[in-house]
Every structure is written in structure tokens, then in C-alpha cells.
Description:
It is a single chain. This protein is of the alpha/beta class. The chain has 4 domains: 3-121, no CATH class; 127-167, no CATH class; 184-312; 329-441, Rossmann fold, CATH 3.40.50. The protein is 49% helix and 7% strand. The protein has helices at 28-45, 54-63, 78-82, 90-95, 108-121, 127-132, 135-142, 145-156, 158-167, 184-187, 212-216, 219-231, 247-252, 255-274, 284-297, 302-310, 314-323, 344-347, 354-359, 387-404, 414-424, 433-441; strands at residues 205-208, 235-238, 278-280, 311-312, 336-341, 365-370, 408-411. The strands form 2 sheets. It has a 4-stranded parallel sheet, sandwiched between helices. Strands 6-5-7 form a 3-stranded parallel sheet. The chain is globular and about 65 Å long.
Amino acid sequence: MSDQGREGGLDAPTRHPLNQNDPEFWDEDDLNKELERVYDICHGCRRCVSLCNSFPTLFDLVDESDTMEVDGVDVADYDKVVDQCYLCDLCYLTKCPYVPPHEWNVDFPHLMLRAKAIKFKKGDTKFRDKIITSTDMVGKLASKPLLNSIANWGTKSSLPRNLLDSTIGIHKEAKLPTYANKTARAANSKYIEQEKDNEAASNGTVTLFTTCYCNYNEPNIVESLIKVFEHNDVRVELALKEYCCGMPKLELGDLQSVTRLKEQNIPVLFDAVQKGSAIVAAVPSCVLMFKQELPLMFPEDEQVKAVAAAFYDPFEYLHKLHKTENLNTEFKNKLGNVSYHVACHQRVQNIGPKTKQILELIEDTDVKSIERCSGHDGTYGVKSETLKFANKIAAPIVRQIKQHEPDYYGSDCPIAGKHIENNLENDQEAIHPIDLLRIAYGI
């Protein structure tokens, strides 16, 4: 048997372009044939049953059908599986033995994305989902001086929460993030198009993509990024303009909005790359959007390729400094025991455990990694119909943290960290690893 036909194979997984401009991509009959083909492969394997709720949903549909095979499942029920997928990508990169170059060519996440795109184009997407994935719009409104206190009151008070639950389907028990009254970009505006120093920083220049979440909800993460990089003699800049990376709209299937956001972000970031800057973002989903998803949507766009090649996870960049003995390792504070959740969208970047490796350079610091999905996804963990599944997916992480009894815990994904914090139900707050590094440096 050729290696391409062998389960698992020896070749590295390869990703095919999304091909959203091919008319066949939008053919619903062709989509349903491909869904049936892939669902049948998944039914025969069942290796991904523990990853998310898409697979238990599929297997229940099959097992409860008259034939107990995929051909017994009503095509109208195919969307029940699609609705549970939030494109974490773990099935593709950690579990599935049939990904390309295997001849079966299974790319479950991008098949779900295709189904979501067709659903969105047909107008079958909920108004709620269009709103909560418009992160820039919501963030700009909620951070305005007159609206900020009202927005934060509304996230915590029972009356508006009950109303949101009953009207648009945002679960009344889901913990919603608060909004800062001063965004990260406003607080650090001096880094936007600052004058060049006479001497460049010895460890390069980084353009921070602040991300919607860090900009509007946790600007302290951006502040820590700046301080840690400057402490390591890295010059820090912010791009002249910044818009949502597009990941929330991608997960919704709104490819037109993804294209619009790409056209707004890429020229600005490409200009920074042309000037010799690397690009860093503290939210793994945003990094993955620029490093993987946009190149797969626009494989011929040279600017997209250049930006993807220059994009780094924060600890990936710091580890690069460490390899050349340019990382400042004079830490003032130990961290003790750290429970570290490895975010899905960081795992699938294939950069290795860079965060753990950097944190373990700190004296008397023991980092225990937890490689399980948190289940939040940014929107999945707030919807009335999916919160219970998001909490169930997070349960194994919560159990491990309770067993560890750590001095600190957190995730590279700040939204995942907050979701874990909400499920722990104690007074200990999640903390981003870049904040931990700042504590260790004593800056």
C-alpha cells in the first residue's frame, strides 16, 4: 500500500486552498454529497468523539437512524453537526488519520466552514450571531465614555441578562467580558507611527496587532507585551490602523466580511513588514487567521504571504531570541506551580511548547501543560443553546487545575482563560502567560 493510502501515513498534513471563488464551492448538492462522504468516514473511525460536540452529535444521529449508517440520517439534520463546530482545527491536526495527503482527503473543519458559508449566503444565520461576531463595532460602542458603564452594568445585572437570554439567545449565566473605558490602542497611542530612534533596538522591531479582545477588554495584556518586549530590547510599534482579524466572521461563514477585513488589514501590516518589522498578537486565533486561514483563502496574494511569514505568537518570538542567547533571563520573581492551558489555535500552529519552555527558564517554576479544548471559542460559550456544551468541554481542564492546586493558571488565549476561570468558581483569576513573564521580570 502506498503511504498516501495508509492510515496516518508518514507525510506531514497538507492543507488545500479553500477555493471559495470556485462556483462548485457554493453548490449545495455537491456540499451534501461531500458531507455524507466525510460523515461516513468519521462514523467508521470515531477517533474524535472527545474533542467537541460535533462528533457526538453526528454519531448520535447515525446510531438513532433506521439503518445505523450515515445513509439513514436525514440530510436536513446535517446542519446539526455543522452548528456544533467552532473551527478549533484539533481534529485535523491532532486526531484525524485521513487528512491529505491521504487519498480520502478529509478536512473536517474546512468542510464545516464551507457549510457555514453556504448557510450564511442563504440568509439562515441568526441576527445574534452577526452581532456578537462584529467585535470591532461592539467594542467601539461599549468603550465610549457614556456607554461604557451601561455596557458593563448590562453584562452583570440580572434584568438585562434575562432579557438577552429570552430575546436573542445569549445565556443569562454566561460570563460576559467587561469593556475597558480606555482601549489599549488609545492608552499606547505613542507607539503608533512613532519617530524612529537613531539606533535600532538590538533585537529587532515588532508591530503589535492588539486584537479586538485585548484592545477593548483586557488592555493590560498589551501593556505587558510592550513592557516584556522592551525589557528584551525589542522596538515596539502599533500599526497605523487595525481592524478585526476576521476569525469571528470566518467561524460564522461570512466570507465577504473576512475579505473586507483582509483588505483593510493586510496593506497596513505589509507596509510594516516591508520596513523590517515582525508582527505579534497575543490571541492565538488572530495569529492563526493571518498565518493559516488567510493564506488558504488567498493563496496567490503575495502581501498575504509576506504578512503570514512575519507573524509570530509572542512566546514564539521570545523563544527565537532565546535560541540566539538574546533573551533576558534575569528574572526577579519565581512563579512556583503554574497550570498552563495550551490554546487550540496555538497548538495547531505547530510551533511547539514555546510558552512552557520560556516560563520554565524561571527559577523554581514548574509548568504543567493541559492540552484540552476550553470549549469557549469566543461565541460558542455565550449562546443559550451551547453554553452547557462549552462547560462540559471545559470540565477536564477544570479537574486538572483543581488537582494541580497551582500558584497561577492561565492560557495563551485570554478568552479561554476566562472561561476556565468561570468554571472553576473560586476566587483565583486566570492570568495570561505574558503577564506571568512580566511578574517574573518584576517590571
